[in-house]
Amino acid sequence: MKKIPYDEILNIQKKVNIVDIIAEYLPIEQKGKNYFAVCPFHDDHNPSMSISPEKQIYTCFVCGASGNVFNFVMNYEHISFVSACALVARKIGINLDINDSSKKALKESKYDNFYGMFDVANKYYQNNIKTVYGKPALSYLKKRNISDDEIKEFEIGLSLTDNNVSKLLKKKGFDENEMVDIGICGRSENFVYDTFRNRIMFPLHDTLGNVVGFSGRIYNNENESKYVNSKESVIFKKGKILYNYAKAINPAREKKQIIIVEGFMDVIRLHTIGIKNVVATMGTAITKEHADLIRKLSKNVVLCFDGDKAGEKATISALEALETIGLEPKIIRLEDNLDPDDYVIKKGVNAFLTHLKNPITGLEFKLEVKKAKIDFNDYKDVSSYVSSAVSLLEKIDDKIIYELMVKKISKETGLDLSTITSLVDGASKKERKIITKPKLIIKNKYEMAEEYLIYYMLRNPDAILLYQNKVSYLTNKTLSMIAIKILEFYELNHYINVTDFSLFLQDDEKLINEVLRIDGFDIPDKVKNDVIEDYIKTIDDGIIKREIDKTKQKINATQDVAKKILLLEKLATLKKKECK
Questions:
Q1: Which of 207-216, 226-235, 557-566 is predicted with the least confidence, judged by mean pLDDT?
Q2: 453-483 residue pLDDT tens
Q3: Phi, psi values for residue 173, rounded to 5°
Q4: Cβ distance 53 to 45 under 8 Å?
Q5: 3-state secondary structure of 217
Q6: Residues 249, 278: contact at Cβ < 8 Å?
C-alpha cells in the first residue's frame, strides 16, 4: 500500500484537534487541562482514556492504548493507517489521493453491492407511497399523525404486490443469489419474488447511515404479523443496530443525553415535538453491542419504554445490560400503559416533557417494581422489601442520594433510619472482597537507564547526539528501534518532539505505545548533560555485566581446556572494564 509522506501527515495533523475528532466518536469531559472518555478499546466502565490537546495524543491508563489522532481513527474504525489519514483529512476538507487496496477496503467494496441493492429498494418504496397505490398507506399514516415531513425525514415507503423490486434489481444487474441472501427477495423453486408485500416500509440504517434492512408494517388490518423484518445477513444484525442511531448521533452529543424507546413510531413521534436525540431497540432486548453503541453517544441515558408490564420487563432487562458496562440510566414510566407515541397524542407534549425533566433513578425504579408487589401489612413482605432495598443501597456512592433513599425507605416501612443504615453496613462488610493488586514489574537500574535515555532523547537534541556518539547499542530491542527512529527523525527534521515523532512512526503501534508510555514518566523534563552521561555509563555497565554473566555460563558449560582458557582471559578483560 502506498505510504503518505510525513510532511503531508504533519500538515493534516496541524489542522485538526484530536479532542474534536474523538468527540465525534465518544462523549468526552474536561478535567483540568486534559479531556477524558470511556476507552473504546477495552471493557471500560469509567473514563480511563486521557486526551491531551497540548500533545495531541490519547492514552488509556488501563489497557495502555495510545497514539495520535490517526491511530485512534484507525483502531476505532478498523481501517488501515492510510485510510485513517484520508478520513481525518476529509473531515477538514482535504482530499488525499490514495489507493488503499487493503483487505478491509476490498471487503467494503463487496458490501457496497449489498448497500446498493437496499438503496434501490428503499428509493422504490419511497416512490410507491407517492403514487395512487400509496393513498391508503398515506391515509393510515395521517391518522397516526405522521406528516409529510416525517415521511420524508424517515424515508417511509410502501411495498406493493407487483414483485417489481426483484425485477428492478435484476434489470440493474444485481445477482439473484445475493438478492435472496440479504433478504430483499425470496425464492420458490426457480421463481424470485419480493420479500415485502403490501406493507408500510421503515428502512433500517447502520451506524454510518447505510440502509441494511427493512421493517414492514401492516396498515389494512390484514390478518398477518404486525411487523416483518429483513432476515439477518452479513450487513444486518438486529442485535447490533438501533433504529435512528445515525441521525441521533449529533443531537445526542449536543444535548449530552440519549433517550431509548422501543418502537419506530415512538422515535418518529418524539421527533415531531423536537426531540431528536432518540433511538429505538425495535422491540428486542438490549445486547452488549447495543450498550456499547449507546455508551458512545452519552453517559446520560434515559429509558422510556412502553408503560405496560411488558415495557416494565424490558426496562429491567435494559437497565441490567447498561449497568453492566458502567452506565446508570434514568427511567421514565408512562401512566395508563401507554407507549411514548400514544402518550404524546393523548396526554400532550407538555405532559411528556414533564416526565422527561423528572426521570427517576434506576434504584428508585427497582424499588418501585418491588414495592408494587408488597403487602405492607405483611411483616414477611416488608422484610423482603427491606432486604432488596439494602442490597441496592450498599451500591450507592453518592452520599446525598444514599441519605434521601434511606429516609424514603424508612418512611415507607416505619423502620428507624439507624436500623436501615446498620443493615446496609452489615451487608457491606459481609460482601467486602479482598482485591489483589496487579503484580508490579520491578526493573533494574540498567533497564531504567535505557528508558530514561529515550525519555530525554524525545526532548533534548543533546541527548540524541550523546546517544549517537557514545552508545554502542541498547539491550532492549524495542527501545533500540525507537532510538534508531529518533535519529532518523532528527536527521530529517532537525528538531524533536513527541507529537510529531508519533506521526513519523505512522501505524507502528508497538513503538508508539512504548514511546507514549515512556513519555508519561514523572521525572524532570530537563536535566544537565552530565546526568544523561551517567545514564549512558550505567547502560555500558549493564552491557559489560551481561557479557560477564554470559562468559561465566560458558566457562561452566565447556569441558574444552583451550576454550576455557580463552574464556577466562575474556572474563579478566571484562572485569577490568567493569572496574573503570
A1: 557-566
A2: 999 999 999 999 999 998 888 989 999 999 9
A3: 90, 10
A4: no
A5: strand
A6: no
C-alpha cell at 490: 532528527
| Secondary structure (3-state) at 526 | coil
**Fold of the domain spanning 445-579:** DNAb Helicase; Chain A (1.10.860)
CATH code at 108-236: 3.90.980.10
Domain 6-91 class? alpha beta
Dihedral sign, CA of 142, 148, 150, 155? positive
Residues of the chain with CATH 1.10.860: 445-579
Question: Of 138, 236, 248, 126, whose CA–CA distance to 181 is shortest?
Answer: 236
Give yes or no for residue 299 having a pLDDT over 80: yes
Question: In this structure, what C-alpha cell is assigned to residue 197?
Answer: 408485500
Secondary structure, 3-state, 165-179? HHHHHHHCCCCHHHH
Q: What are 325-344's pLDDT values in tens digits? A: 888 899 999 999 999 999 99
Pairing of strands 227-229, 199-205: unpaired
The answer to whether residues 305 and 261 touch, using CB atoms and an 8 Å cutoff, is yes
pLDDT value of residue 577: 67
Average the pLDDT over each of 51-60, 75-84, 340-349, 440-449 and give the range with the smallest value.
Answer: 440-449
CATH architecture classification, 245-366: 3-Layer(aba) Sandwich (3.40)
- In this prediction, residue 218 has a pLDDT band, given cuts at 50, 70 and 90, of very high
Tens digit of pLDDT for each residue in 115-155? 999 999 999 999 999 999 999 999 999 999 999 999 999 99
Burial (0-12, 13-18, 19+ Cβ within 10 Å), 351: middle
Q: 359-384: string of b/e by CB count within 10 Å (b at 16+)?
A: bebbbbbbbeebbeebeeeeeeebee
Q: Could you give the CA distance from residue 487 to residue 373 in angstroms, rounded to a whole number?
A: 72
Place of cell 541498547: 474
CA–CA gap between residue 40 and residue 60 (Å, rounded): 10
Whole-number Cα distances in Å, 179 to 216, 217, 235: 17, 21, 13
> For the chain, where do the domains classified as CATH 3.90.980.10 start and end?
108-236
Q: Encode 85-113 in three state secondary structure.
A: HHHHHHHCCCCCCCCCCCHHHHHHHHHHH
Q: Where in the chain is the domain with CATH 3.40.1360.10?
A: 245-366
pTM given for the model: 0.69
The residues of the chain that CATH labels 3.90.580.10 are 6-91
pLDDT of 230 strictly over 50: yes
The SS3 of residue 207 is coil
Q: Using CA atoms in the order 382, 383, 388, 394, what is the torsion angle rounded to 10 degrees?
A: 120
Q: Are 498 and 519 in contact (CB under 8 A)?
A: yes
